[in-house]
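HOLO CASE FILE
Compound: iron/sulfur cluster
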Amino acid sequence: MMYHEDDYLPIAALQHLSFCERQWGLIYLENVWADNILTADGKNLHEHADEEMTESRVDVVIARGLRLSSPKMGLSGIADVVEFHEVPEEESHDGAITLDGLSGKWRPYPVEYKRGKPKLDHCDLVQVCAQALCLEEMTGADIPEGAIYYGKPKKRTIVRFDDKLRSETTHLAERLHRLTKIGRTPLAKYEKKCRSCSIYDYCLPKATYSSEKARRYISSALKEPHYREDK
Ligand code: SF4
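Model generated. Tokens follow.
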């Protein structure tokens, strides 16, 4: 299936969805502090990109603000940095591409900039993988790896786009479309990760969860025969 561009959803939504479906719903369906979170991320991202990009290499061409899209996944977004690495003569040029005005063969290499530390979960990985999948679809290149630059420590983490990560990313994109179609923010479920959630104060997972339990209890009680008889 191919998506129409009117139905594309933001690549950035994948990281929130991967972290917590409710977090995604609050940000993307209910606009809870979306501006603040996304703006803060963007500001940081540019600062880190500028910081790291002072170093230049002859065999790397840097494209900033590249617009990415994937009709297959129905996603679009802007990659802050895509590096194009020149493939050495002696290496296989399979899946490498040419660039206008430059000789040689090149391989795209997405780099995602994040404030904070590397995370143990896959949220950041799926986002950079989605960028790679878009680039593959757009250019016909094979992209085996990319990187995430974390502000703490100021260091790159290499991300290999193996089959498992690719499949996780495409499934998440499908889930994103399904939940967007449903258009309802998933319910809160208090978990350990809530403690590091950027919108904890807006979600109030413990309170939301107990009020939802109470609501369910009341509605199931109202379905009991004695309530119906009273009507
Ligand atoms: S506080 Fe917990 S349940 Fe609420 S959005 Fe954050 S991670 Fe999800």
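CASE NOTES: The mean pLDDT is 86. The longest helix spans residues 163-182.
CLOSED: yes
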